[in-house]
Every structure is written in structure tokens, then in C-alpha cells.
Amino acid sequence: MRISYEWLGSMVDLPDDPKVLYTELIRTGTEVETIERVGADLEHVVVGQVLSKKPHPDSDHMWLCQVSVGDKNVDENGDPAPLQIVCGAQNFNEGDKIVVAMIGAVLPGDLKIKKSKLRGVESCGMNCSERELGLGGDHSGIMILPEDAPVGMPFTDYRGTSDTVLDCEITPNRPDCLSYVGMATEVGAVLDEDTHIELPAIQREEGPKSADLVDVKIADTSLCSRYVARVVRGVKIGPSPEWLARRVIAAGSRPINNVVDVTNYVMYLTGQPLHAFDLGKLSERDGRRHIVVRAAREGEQLTTLDGQQRTLTSDMAVITDDGERAVALAGVMGGLNSEIDDTTVDVLLESACFDKSHISRTSRNLNLMSEASIRFERQVDAANCEEVADIAAALFESCCGATVCRGRVDEYPVPVKAVRIALRGERVRSMCGAPITNDKISHLLERLGCAVVAQKGGNDFEVVAPTSRPDLTREADLIEEVLRLWGMDRVEPTLPAAKNHHGGLTVDQQRTQLIGRTLRACGLSETFTYCFAEDGDLERANISETGRGVPVRIKNPLLANNSEMRRSILPGLLRSVAYNLDHGVPNVALYEQGRVFFGHEKRTLPDEPRYVAGVLCGAWGLDGWNERHQPLDFFDAKGVVERLLAALRITKVRFKVADASEYPWLQPGRAAEVYAGGELLGWVGNVHPTSLANFGIDEDVVAFELSEAHLLRLAARELPYQDVPTLPAITHDLAIVVDEDVTCEMLTQRITSAGGKLLESARLFDVYRDPVRVGLGKKSMAFQLTYRANDHTLTSEEVERAHEKLVKKVCRSTGGEVRG
Fold first, then answer.
1. Which of 315, 328, 215, 331 is nearest to 274 (CA)?
2. Domain tally, the chain
3. Which pLDDT value is given to residue 734?
4. For residue 90, what are the contacts with CB-CB under 8 A and spacing of at least 6?
5. Most buried residue among 6, 289, 342, 629 by CB atoms closer than 10 A?
6. According to the UniProt entry, what is the EC number of this protein (predicted)?
7. Both 256 and 135 in a single domain?
8. Which own/partner pairs from 500-505 qualify as long-range (CB within 8 Å, at least 24 positions apart)?
9. Cα(734)–Cα(780) distance, rounded to whole angstroms?
């Protein structure tokens, strides 16, 4: 919201230095992004006087002018000298005072004024129109100033066009601050100043009643709670008065004509969006126009004011001509078929309140954001619609020469009720930790527009919140407002009372942090993706829905395509991988700890288990002159998972080949389930190329996803103590030829079982295949076996006996044979 210091200052007394207000707004919770000096960019724009006006020697419509700008231009001797300017306007004469942009000026629209030649004649500036100065839409001729305008004076000083604009970031729960009236109330409360807001009033109503010319019907009250219509006749379309154009510009809009500018001005002033229909373009029946607010029909077409044809859905609201032809997309944008143009004489003025959730979905689904939709989706004050319609009608009367018809049409099927809230003074002081008196509490709330009535005893209050503040619904909201205005910085810091206990993290919290530390130590970076997911995310990733419940749908999504809560962390991580690859980052190693949401058909609340997931793509680092990194593969991800489980001291871990039918998002033969003590923890594997292609990834990606609840439950606080070995070990290498279907896990289990107490470890260090030397369908797997006794030094005879026994058992159980 752009706040003009001049405009706001006409409603409430402001400090001379805008930085003081800037500081106070930030202190009380309104973020101010920038302070902008409007009019400062009109440097080198001054008041000039036309000394001579002669026809251009090579043009039948251009003039060669000598323009005095006082002491702003000098000749070679330093004496004042006029500027030679070539001008194509026809509405000026010699002696007129005009606005001159000299060389070096930069006009709105980034128009830089330079010395130039027009039809062979040198021109050293430009005579300006209102439009070129950003003061209005009139481009028919240059701007003529009064005779007493001082020649040479900077134009910003002469017209007072310089202003300070504060660009405020208004939070979604404060729709009242999207208006100057609301901001004046807020600033008055912050600065403890009275407001003096003067609103335009209708001078005279005459002619037929609005109700005799227009009929309004709201077909669906869930879409529209109030609709006020007024009729003004005899509108004269033209440029807006300078004060109106200036304020519209300061608020961030471009002046168009007096009708459009009035509706924009009133919207900025009150926060209530308006729309003006050309009454003559609406069909007439029984002597009246019939406005019907209804839901759009599925597939209904409407060409909006921006010239785009929109295809509507049944979730959208439209304003229709007698219930049939849509003439506006309610709360978002008007239709081209009822647009105000130069032929408009009579205007139907709309001041309505539409449902915020429908407006929000409409603007996002159509990708059509407007100043009106921004305000409607934050909630407009329905109680204010009638007053706003009168304000707009008064401005049509004064700025457009219109006649205001008597009365108004007001359909109000769902009246808004002011919220009454009980407030306890002691509760305020207890929650704030500050000695705020009851009188101060009452005073601060009244500054915000609340009606405060002290209850018997004077320590409790009944507060009636203004209807323009939908965020005030409970006692805690009022307490927050009191503390915000009183000053959070004034609260003395104190330690909370705590008896017989000390603070600290729980065991699960410590282990959760350990998971993150371990993954970061493995080279992964933590990331956070949205808990919102696109509809069909699991299908896009080819992830099975088995065990993941039903989707949890979002009634009012922030983005139209994020319509449900995620059921897997993997799709979000894959989008992060795609984003990094698209932006030239070849090596990606990310992990995330977060919740997923499994809904149920017959239960209100979903399950919200926590998972930890990671993705690896590329290599561990960039290649250098002396180092080449291998691409990350399945075993890198498996190693990360093993390191994580070891850090949590989870024992009896094993990896089982994943069934391709149960894990369609993983490559067959490159995926495994992760077990600990017979309990499934999750999976690890290469993501299937089809899944990657659906996310726009053409590089290999390895991923894992583990249940955090299972990890925390199986994690051990400590392991049994083992003495550091003091006796020597003896190692033997064993190369055994087995069938291809014998896995390393199977062979390791057989070796460990047959090794007895003397076998300390078995480590695979080689796999060899050769159809001639090893045999077709065979492979040789070589293990390093370590033997050690804890109570004595082993002899070679002991080790030989144990080794021979191990070899016989393993060969017999696997059908293998020792490779010679």
C-alpha cells in the first residue's frame, strides 16, 4: 500500500520528518519497505514563458518557440537567454506561462530530455502536457499555467507536486490498512493523535429514484453478502481535476479519466472497491435494468476490460445483465461489454461485498490479480458499502458534472454483526507483563475505533470491535493490540518462574538434531520445501499410494496448483534438484526432515508422520586438475543411510532388494528396503528415469526416505562396552565361486554364522566374473576374514581348523566352491 504523506496528513497530524512515522509504523508492526520522494524526478522541469511562436520552416503543424526560463538558462556571457524549443501543440500563444522540461530532465516513463533536431531545427527542451508530467491523461495540448506563475521556478515547488510516499507492506489480517481512512485511524492510534477525516458529501439528489431505474438480485448469498447500486446521470467524461489525478498517482495508479479516477480514488480512500457500468449498455426491461449476482456457468465466456477472453467455472461469481449476459467478473474485473467510454452518459455505480475465498480462487485460477481482488480476498467491510457509494456519487457530482439520482438500491441479505469481546484488565497486565492501567487500555482501543464500556468495578470491559477489523475476534487479539500500541520495547525482560526443573531438549529432540548433523556431515545440505503439494504429485513421481492414505485437500490454497498436503517429501526434493540443474548447479545433495499427511475417509484429522528424505545428483565435488570425482550412485546413498543408522546406534541393519512392483518410482535392481531388527525403516535407490523425466530431470538421481518415528524408537542411547583389542588378529582371504543369484548379504550371513566366536569380521573386497575362468552364470566373491580371541593369542593351528570348518559350511549351504 503506497501512502502519500500529503494525503494522509490531511486526515491526521503527522510529524514533519517522515522517518519518524516510518520508525513508529515499524515499531507497531507495519513494515515499511521504502520511503520515496515523488516529484523529485521532475528535476530540471520549470515554469517557462513563451516569448515568440513562429511556424517551423519545414513543417505545417510544428512551431519554433523562444521560451524564457529565467536564470535557469544562460548564454556564453552568463546572461539569461531563452531556450529554442520545437513544439507540435496548438493550444498556446505568445506570452503564455507553460511547463518546460529542460535538457537533463527525466519525465515519468523514463523519458529523458536531450538536445535534438526536429526537421533540421535544433530543440533544447520540451513543452509539457499533463500526461507527460504524470499529472493526468490529457495529451491534447501543453499545460497552460496562470499568468502569475513565476518564470524559472521549479515546477514541483510551484504546484506542490512533490510528496513523500511510504510503501507499506500490509499483512493479510489487516484489510483496514489497505485504505487511507484505515491508515489514518492506525496512525492516529500509533501517534496518539485525533483524526480529522472529511469525506465528500452529495450536494443534491434529483430526478428519478435509483430504485426506479435499477433492480438488484443476489441469487447466491454465499458469493455476495451485500450489493449497493446508485445511478448518476449526465456524466461528462474528461480529464480529472489536478488534485484527484495527483492523489491517484501517489497511490500507485495512472490517471485515465474522471470516471475511472473517481472509482480508484474512493477505493484507495475507503478500501472498498467500486465498479462503474455504462447504464446505456445494459438491457432494459419494464423500464429498469436488472442486475443479478450469480455463480458463473461452467465454461461461460467473458471478455474482461484488459481485452482477454476468460473461460469461467462454477466457483466464480459474475455480475449479469438480467441474469443472462455476464457484464463483470465479481470482485476482480469488469467486462468489456459494459465499459465506460467517451460516449457514456449515465453510470450505474456498484458498491458490493463479495466472498473473500471465492475471489481469491478466481483471481489465482485466472492469473488475474487486481487492486480490487487484493482487497476483496482480505475481506471488505460490508457495513460500509452504502456510505462508500454515497462518497463516490458525491465525487461524480463534483468532478464529472453528474446529476445524482435519489436514493440507492441496497440488497443486504447477510448483515454483518459487530463482534463483542469481554476483556479483563488483569489478564492484559498478566499476559503483557507490563503495568498498563485500565484507563490506558480503554484509550488505546478507542483510538483503534473500538467501543469500550467499563463493567462494574472498572477492571473489566466489554469491547465492540469495528466491522472494518475482522482480525479482532477474541480477548487475545485485543491484548495484542494494546501491547502493540503501548510498546513491546517498554516491557521489562524477566526470567519466567521455574521450580524444581531445568530446561533442555528431550531425548527425541536431541536425536532429531543428531539426524540433521549426521546428514550434513555426510555432505548433504538441509532444505525446506512446501508442505503443500500439487494435485497428482504422487502420480507424477510414480509413487504408490499404498499406505499413504487419501489426499488432504486444501479449501483455500495459496496457489491454485498447490491444492493438497504432501504425502511424500520426494516430489518436493525432485523439484529442488530440477531447479538447481536448470540454474547451472551440477552437483546436488539435499535432505529434508518434515511431516507428510495421510488422510482418512472417515476421520477428520489426518496422520502426520515425520520422515527424513534425501537426494543425491552429480558428484561430491567439481573435478580439478589432480582429482576426478565419480558420479554419485546407489552405494553413495546406501553409505549415507548406513552412517545415519550407525550414528543413531541402530543395530541389526540389513538391506533387502526392493520388489519393483511395490516401488515403481525406483529402478529395478538399484533399490533396496532398509530393515532394522525385522522392522521396515524406509527405502533407498535410484529414482526411475520416467519419474525424473516428469520433473524435467535428465540426470541420474539417488534418493532415500526413512520414517523418523521408527529411527527415534530404535535408536539406542548407548552401546555395550567392548574393550580395545590388545591381542593380535590373523587374517585370511577367501574367494568363493557361487551362482549369480547368491547375494552378498546371504553369503555374509553364512560366513558370520559359520565363523563362530573366533571370527571377528568379514569384509567383501572383490567381485569377479569371467565365463571361462569362473564359469557362465557364476561369480567369484572375495572376503577378508579376521580372526581374533579375546583371552589368548591365536595359534596358526586354531585358525586353520576354524577356517576349514567355515569354508566347508559355507560351500555346503550356498553350493559354492573355493576358487583356486
1. 331
2. 6
3. 92
4. 61, 141
5. 289
6. 6.1.1.20
7. no
8. none
9. 10
- Asked whether the CA dihedral 727, 732, 733, 736 is positive or negative, the reply is negative
For residue 498, being part of any structural domain is answered with: no
Mean pLDDT (the chain) is: 90
What's residue 694's pLDDT? Answer: 93
**Residues 660 and 686 both lie in one domain:** yes
CA dist 294 → 322, 347, 365, 597 (Å): 11, 21, 18, 36
Same domain, 24 and 52: no
The b-or-e profile of 552-581 (16+ CB within 10 A means b, else e) is beeeebeebebbbbbbbbbbbbbbbbbebb
Digit-coded pLDDT (tens) for 46-71: 999 999 999 998 888 899 999 999 88
**What was the pLDDT predicted at 716?**
87
Instruction: Count other Cβ atoms within 10 Å, centred on residue 201.
Output: 11
Which residues sit opposite 598 in a β-bridge?
Answer: 607
Q: What tens digit of pLDDT does each residue of 82-125 get?
A: 899 999 888 899 999 999 999 888 887 778 888 888 888 889 99
Cell numbers at 673, concatenated: 528396503
Q: What is the pLDDT of residues 576-603, one digit of tens each?
A: 999 999 999 999 999 999 999 998 888 8
Q: Which residues contact 645 (CB under 8 A, 6 or more apart)?
A: 653, 674, 676, 681, 711
Encode 345-359: b = buried (16+ Cβ within 10 Å), e = exposed. Answer: ebbbbbbbbbbbebb
For residue 640, give the CATH number of its domain: 3.30.930.10
Residue 542 in any domain: the answer is yes
The band of 442, judged by pLDDT with boundaries at 50, 70 and 90, is very high
Does residue 312 share a domain with residue 260? yes
- Half-sphere exposure of residue 217: CA atoms within 13 angstroms, side-chain side: 12
Tell me how far apart the alpha carbons of residues 166 and 36 are, in angstroms, rounded to a whole number.
Answer: 6
Please tell me whether residues 664 and 630 are part of one structural domain: yes
- The alpha helices in 499-602, defined as continuous H runs, are 507-521, 537-541, 570-582
At residue 78, does pLDDT exceed 80? no
CATH number at residue 272: 3.50.40.10
Closest CA to 134 of 264, 40, 260, 11: 40
At 373, which helix (H) or strand (E)? helix 371-376
Mean pLDDT of 640-659: 92
Beta-carbon contacts of residue 42 (< 8 Å; ≥ 6 apart): 105, 107, 133, 154, 155, 156, 161, 162
> In terms of residues, how long is the chain?
820
**Whole-number Å distance between alpha carbons of 60 and 63:** 9
Biggest CA pair distance of the chain: 124
Structural domain contains residue 198? no
199 within a domain of the structure (yes/no):
no
Structural domain that includes position 389: 205-411
- Binding site for Mg(2+), residues? 471, 477, 480-481
Q: Which residues pair with 344 in a beta bridge?
A: none
